[in-house]
Every structure is written in C-alpha cells, then in structure tokens.
Design brief:
alpha/beta
Length: about 350
C-alpha cells in the first residue's frame, strides 16, 4: 500500500489512515478482527483518543505483537499538566505500548504557553525527552487557532477538518502546513457522514500530497471499500468534479458538522445529530429516524431554553438554536409524509 511522508516527522504512513473512533461502538473481538484485517491489507496509521471509550484498548489488543510496524496517534483533552501526565500513562497502558508516535492536544481552545513550566506544552516536551512520545500534535476545528499552531513551530502535526467541501481558507491552511513541513492529518473527511460519494471524497483529498485523511471505520464493508479505492484510485475527471460541485451546492453554507463540542446540552437535546437531521434524512437511509425514540429525541428541541451554551462552544460559530428549530420543522413534515 502506498505510503506518504507525514511532514517533518518523516513518518511514512498509509493514505488511507484508520480513524478508530467508530470502533467504540463495536464489540471487542469484532473490532480487533477489523483492525487486524486493515493491518493485513497494509494500513499502518491508526488514530484514536483517550476520550473514545475503549478504542485505545482495542488497538492495544489488535497490534501489541506488531507495534513497531504501525503508527499510532492518540489525544488528550487535558487542560492541566498533571491531568495530561495521567492521561498519557493510561493511554500507554491501554494501547499496550511504551511509546506513542504522535500525542495530540485534543481541540484546545488556545495554544499552551511554551514558556510556562506548568503548561501542557512543558509536559509534552518532558514526555518526549523520556521517549514516551515521539512527536507533538494538535487537533482543532477553529481555523484561526489551527493557523496559529502552524505559525508557532510548537507542533509536528495538525489535525483539522478537510473534505471536498473545503473553503479557500481551509486550503490556505493546507498550503501553510506544506510550507512549514508540518504534517496535515485530515479529519471529518466525510463531513460527519453527510458526504456519501466516497470515491469523490478520496479523489479530492488525493490532490494534496501533504494531506493524510483518516477515515472513520466501523464496519468491515467500509474498510473493504477504502482498501479497494487504494488499489484502484478514483480519477478526478470531469464527471467526478461535477459530483463534487453538486455536493458543495447541496451542503454549502451553514450546516452542523456533528463534531459534538456543543454537548452535553442542559435540555438533553442530541444537538450533534438533531441540528443536521434534515440533511441526514435526504442523504442516508432514513427509516431509523422515524422510530418513536428518535421522534422523542427531536421533540426535546421544544424544551430548548436558549441558554447559549451551544453558541459559545460551536467552533463554526453556527446559530445552533435556529438550526435546531429549522431541523425540527423539517423533521415533523418529513415524519408526517413518510411514517406508515
């Protein structure tokens, strides 16, 4: 399987990479089997996080005997030095390894102070000196913070949402990483499941040699599709460009990416699904969303107190309360039309 250089880390990683977050919804033995199949087919790059329940443990069980043949990235949501140290210790145990290739700060609201001996960055540097981590990375959904991270020279990699819906500003970030020789790891390559044309998604990102997309994989058939697309890469021809433009038109403007940083909601609204349900109904099998439990979840939108928490937390500055109201109206109309 083709490998590319991940910026100044000089790590040679496969493109595709395996995003392990969805495997937290899969039973342990089946998850391990899917991971091993990925490895047996040549995939060597696996991304997870301390926050993804048992995903680290599944990687540990799958790969402890071939650890040196793979690249592992994980993340910490720690905001204090001592918390980061505890998270790192736990991650090393659950991953069954004595080092992590890339240890990432998980969606930080700001960059840590590189001069503060009590900062997260100091903890990262000390962990690197001890050989517990090889490289330092950061993930973010906020473009200004991501660009600041690139310009800071503090990090070896950045993980940022990138898909065929990318704006010109997003692509400027890709170029900035290329100039700085910073590894660019693309998350949300399917925009939280809203992009359903997988060949188009792969072809678009293949244009950028310094971008390594991580594909969230939960089912064996999804893995099989990415393996096949790597063997027979889709061409970015005129027909493919038209398909991409169609998606860009349909999904352009303000829409919820489903990142979940607005959660939890005090009114228990499942915002990261409810705020984009109108798009999901039109772009994926809709039957499960017509079941009674989903209707009850959507009706919670009527309990919204407009507390402002989701507005403050959204990295895309969306008017989430308004999106929720629009999606509820669409849902009720769709429900009345399609519920048998």
């Amino acid at each position: 399987m083709k490998k590319v250089r991940l910026g100044r880390t000089n790590l040679k990683v496969t493109k595709p990479a395996f995003g392990v977050l969805p495997l937290q919804r899969v039973e342990m033995n089946e998850a391990v089997r899917i991971l091993r199949k990925a490895y047996d087919n040549g995939i060597n790059f696996y991304d997870t996080a301390r926050a993804y329940t048992d995903s680290e443990e599944k990687i540990g069980r799958a790969f402890s005997d071939v650890r040196k043949n793979i690249v592992i990235t994980t993340k910490t949501q720690a905001r204090k030095k001592e918390t980061l140290e505890k998270h790192l210790e736990t991650s090393l145990k659950t991953l069954k390894t004595d080092y992590i290739d890339i240890y990432q700060l998980h969606n930080s609201e700001k960059l840590p102070d590189r001069e503060d001996p009590e900062s997260l960055y100091d903890a990262l540097l000390k962990a690197k000196e001890k050989g517990l981590i090889r490289f330092i990375g950061i993930t973010n959904h906020r473009r200004p913070i991501a660009l600041e991270a690139v310009q800071s020279s503090m990090f070896d990699t950045i993980q940022f949402p990138l898909s065929l819906l990318a704006t010109e500003e997003d692509l400027k970030l890709v170029e900035a990483c290329k100039k700085s020789d910073l590894g660019f790891i693309a998350m949300k390559a399917l925009s939280g499941g809203l992009i359903t044309n997988i060949p188009a998604a792969v072809a678009f990102l293949d244009q950028y040699e310094n971008v390594v997309p991580i594909w969230g994989i939960q089912r064996e058939r999804e893995l099989d599709q990415f393996i096949e697309l790597e063997k027979n890469p889709p061409r970015l021809d005129e027909e493919m460009r038209k398909a991409i433009e169609k998606d860009r038109i349909e999904l352009g403007g303000d829409f919820c990416r489903g990142c979940g940083y607005c959660m939890p909601c005090p009114a228990e609204i499942p915002i990261n699904m409810a705020a984009r349900l109108s798009l999901l109904l039109m772009r994926s099998p809709y039957q499960r969303f017509l079941e009674d439990d989903w209707k009850a979840q959507m009706m919670k939108i009527e309990d919204c107190t407009e507390c402002g928490n989701c507005l403050d937390q959204c990295p895309y500055s969306l008017n989430t309360p308004e999106l929720l109201k629009k999606n509820l109206a669409f849902y009720l109309e769709f429900y009345a039309k399609h519920k048998k």
